[in-house]
Specification:
alpha/beta, Enolase-like, domain 1, TIM Barrel, eight-stranded parallel sheet
Length: 356
């Protein structure tokens, strides 16, 4: 097979602020694998969580190219081993994701089937997605919440908290979002602290959020403070999910006694192959599974949407916050992000004039 890649610039409609900083856009690397007249595509979305950057991604791909081009796209097991063997020098999970997703896209196109059909999944059981409200001053939160709900008619919002400015600011942000949403009917509320709380502040905030109708809390404590989750989880009145703390199926084993669920992201697992292992490992440990995203285009969102029938909660919204998404391929129907019927990922490249 032939391996090639190119950069695409993604610009957000609303810059996203979380506890660790603000992102207005990103450079993704789009990977193509070509063989037998079929092109499969995957995406590397950079993130401080995985450590992948456009530069590291391109260096990884260049390092793997010679070996991978001796393979056929159906040899995924061998290709995974090739990349693992090269991992000493390179190998960020988001870059591995781009290759793995491209191989699945290729296989689906070869079979002439959408991936969800190839896997025998039921698209009708996909849950509605949440949309994200970033961590901003309350007046900005009011504006953004109103704009998101007016544009998308979403029924689930995930509010980013864990502000460095403290718990009073978190409460003000959450109240502002709820106030702005009042005009739009009932909303299901989720909160993601992105590791911005201590055990003590989480013990104060979680009961407060429960009283205000929140259904779950994501990543209350920083990655690395998983010992703190033991005490927090034992007394928590809300389900606790982790995101930054979990990457692959291996992490499920040691986190299972201290969380209720995990937020799976393809950029962290290194693609669809490990994502499926993670889902089944989490199920075997009695955990709920959410599928989320980094700052991705519709290409990676489509890959997540094909897996969505296998998980409980959906947070596939990054493409809905882009003003220049280079791809189409998912449908947004009654608050649900649905994979298409086309073969493989079912994605299409937009023509350049439609991306500005
Ligand atoms: Mg998160």
């Amino acid at each position: 097979m032939q391996l090639s890649w190119e950069r695409v610039e993604l610009t957000k409609r609303h810059p996203l602020t979380i506890s660790r900083g603000t992102i207005a856009g990103a450079t993704s690397v789009i990977v193509s694998v070509e063989a037998d007249g079929i092109v499969g595509r995957g995406e590397m979305a950079p993130s401080s969580v995985t450590g992948d950057t456009p530069e590291s991604g391109e260096a990884d791909l260049a390092g793997w190219q010679l070996q991978l081009e001796t393979r056929h796209p159906l040899q995924r097991q061998l290709i995974e081993a090739d990349i693992a063997a090269a991992d000493g020098e390179c190998g960020g999970s988001a870059t591995r994701c781009a290759v793995d997703v491209a191989l699945h896209d290729w296989a689906g196109q070869r079979a002439g089937l959408a991936l969800w059909k190839l896997w025998g999944l039921d698209r009708d059981c996909i849950a509605p997605t949440s949309l994200t409200v970033g961590l901003n001053p309350p007046d900005v939160v009011r504006q953004v919440t109103t704009e998101i709900l007016a544009r998308t008619k979403a029924r689930i919002l995930k509010v980013k908290l864990g502000s460095p400015a403290g718990l009073d600011h978190d409460r003000d942000v959450f109240r502002a979002a709820v106030e702005a949403a009042t005009a739009f009917g009932p909303i299901t509320w989720r909160v993601d602290a992105n590791g911005g709380w201590t055990v003590l502040s989480a013990q104060i905030m979680i009961p407060w959020l429960a009283e205000h109708g929140v259904e779950m809390v994501e990543q209350p404590l920083a990655k690395g403070d998983e010992d703190g989750l033991v005490a927090l989880h034992h007394f928590s009145v809300l389900p606790i999910f982790v995101d930054e703390s979990v990457s692959t199926a291996r992490d499920i084993v040691w986190l299972a006694d201290r969380v209720d669920g995990v937020n799976l992201k393809l950029m962290k697992t290194g693609g669809i192959t490990e994502a499926i292992r993670l889902i089944h490992t989490a199920r075997a440990h009695g955990l709920n599974v959410m599928i989320g995203c980094m700052g991705e285009s519709s290409l990676s969102i489509a890959a997540g949407a094909h897996l969505a029938p296998l998980v409980d909660a959906i947070d596939l919204d990054s493409h809905l916050n882009l003003i220049n998404d280079p791809f189409t391929g998912t449908q947004f129907v009654n608050g649900r992000v649905l994979p298409g019927d086309g073969p493989g990922l079912g994605i299409t490249r937009r023509s350049q004039e439609h991306t500005s």
